[in-house]
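Our preliminary data section would be incomplete without showing what the modeling component actually yields. Below, a chain of 244 amino acids is followed by its predicted structure, encoded as tokens that our downstream tools consume directly.
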Amino acid sequence: MLLETILEQLEVGELAQLALTERVDGELTEANKKALVTHVNMALRALHKRFVFQQNSLDITLQSGLHKYVLDRKFAASNTQSTEPVKYIPDLDDPFVDTVMQIEAVTDDMGNDVPLNSSSRMNSLRTTNFNTLVLPRKTPEYRHILDYIDTLTVIYRPNPKALGLLDLVYPANMVEVDLPETHLEPLLLYIASRVLNPIGMSETFHAGNNYAAKYEASCQQLLNEGFGLSVTGHGGQFSSNGWV
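Predicted structure:
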């Protein structure tokens, strides 16, 4: 989706009556453009948390005695600038450049699901935060994962590519936004709610809350129509549900 599409829709629709979309000599002011891009970034994050638009994966080479693995580029073999003594992400052929929103699933080197955050499985892996995977401690009661696995594949949800100040230098019809066209409507509604909520209530009508309700309804409609990915199975594997 192009940034121009979003700005044009806001100008003629949800934010048509606000100074935020006013133009000078046919162009949005730098201040207005910067504010609108900030709102777009917040809407992108909200929608990428609600819908699974993309799943990526990376391998982790398990290290003897190491139980915590952080999915961060400083532990990537391709990152020659990092001074970390152990680079357990072997990404020389396909450099790991994402930032991780959430770890979704883990498989072993045979493609089998590995238990993740399962309170009923003693050998379950855990996520202690959005990008950190922790192996269970070795005990005599069960076969430890390090006894039979050398490599794990971590399936994760990446953060959307945020728009930055450099993107404002280019014309809006040249700037790509990390969202499919199908989700333009909830993005516009989220932005309208965020912009109008600080204004509060006018007589008996609260425009911000009204747009927030429309945003929730629009998201639910997309989910009902199958526009996204769903998580299935005990290991959290993804299956297609409306996306190719």
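The chain has two domains: 3-52+161-241, 56-158. DSSP finds four helices and twelve strands in the chain. Preliminary results of this kind motivate Aim 1 of the renewal.
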